[in-house]
């Protein structure tokens, strides 16, 4: 199965492993059935195969949402499309439906999709999607209301024509020290790359998208206090 367009390469290995593991479990289920792999036995095995792959993909897709790769509508559309794709692939693999025709296979895939959307795992996924949406909202720069006066200019130190974000640099270094990390470590946790981290530590300007990824990387640490986008100094 091909991945959806835009699915990041660094999130694919977990799904690759889930696909291989699901294949092993399906083979073992067929062996255990001893020639009786049909009817309810086969349907349960197919449902398990689809769930084993799809929900791992869904977790990685949620991470893509946190990394600002897919927006809310795009994320939901990708999940719906991939679920049906996995379900249809399962029918192509099924001995009992392989020769039944495309219409019948699509009907079974739609039935499997409907069952999964009634499951506890699907309800749990909705909670994860809600958390992603809340994270994106908290990470987004706050818009200034047109009815309010604009904020006062931010005092910054300038060297030549380059604005220096020195408080931000110091804050970032403190957060790295809290985690016993350096500028190279953050890249391993879906944060900005090491060159961008050096720019931040040097007090140079970066985009809001980079700062959002900075929060993702810092919050990947298991024990250090979590940080929010609003914690990042503006100077």
Structure description:
The protein is mainly α and about 240 residues long. The chain has 2 domains: about 130 residues, no CATH class; about 80 residues, 434 Repressor (Amino-terminal Domain), CATH 1.10.260. It is built from 8 helices and 2 strands. A two-stranded antiparallel sheet has the order 1-2. Helix 2 runs antiparallel to helix 3, helix 2 packs parallel to helix 5 and helix 3 packs across helix 4. The relative contact order is 0.09. About 0% of the residues have low confidence.
Q: Determine Rg (CA atoms, Å).
A: 23 Å
Oligomer: single chain
- Sketch the major β-sheet: 2 strands, antiparallel
User: How many domain regions?
Assistant: 2
Distance between the termini: 47 Å
Structural class: mainly alpha
Please indicate the percent range of residues in DSSP E strands (runs of 2 or more): under 5%
As a percent range, the share of helical residues equals: 55-70%
Q: Looking across the biggest beta sheet, what order are the strands in?
A: 1-2
Label the overall shape.
elongated
Number of strands: 2
Counting DSSP H or I runs of 4 or more residues, the number of helices is 8
Report the order of strands and helices: HHHHHEEHHH
């Amino acid at each position: 199965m091909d991945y959806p367009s835009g699915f990041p390469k660094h999130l694919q290995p977990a799904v690759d492993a889930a696909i291989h593991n699901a294949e092993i479990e399906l083979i073992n289920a067929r062996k255990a059935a001893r020639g009786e792999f049909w009817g309810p036995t086969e349907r349960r095995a197919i449902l398990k195969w689809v769930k084993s792959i799809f929900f791992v993909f869904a977790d990685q897709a949620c991470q893509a949402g946190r990394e600002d790769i897919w927006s809310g509508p795009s994320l939901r559309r990708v999940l719906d499309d991939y679920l049906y794709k996995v379900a249809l692939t399962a029918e192509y693999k099924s001995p009992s439906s392989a020769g039944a025709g495309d219409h019948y296979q699509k009907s079974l895939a739609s039935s499997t999709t409907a069952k999964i959307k009634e499951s506890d795992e699907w309800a749990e996924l909705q909670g994860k999607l809600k958390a992603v949406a809340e994270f994106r909202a908290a990470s987004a720069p706050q818009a200034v209301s047109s009815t309010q006066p604009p904020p006062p200019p931010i005092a910054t130190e300038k060297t030549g024509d380059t604005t220096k974000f020195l408080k931000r640099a110091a804050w970032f270094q403190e957060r790295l020290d809290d985690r016993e990390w350096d500028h190279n470590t953050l890249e391993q946790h879906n944060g900005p790359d090491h060159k961008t981290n050096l720019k931040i530590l040097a007090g140079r300007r970066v985009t809001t998208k980079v700062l959002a990824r900075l929060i993702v990387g810092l919050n990947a640490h298991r024990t250090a206090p979590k940080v929010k986008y609003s914690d990042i100094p503006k100077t």
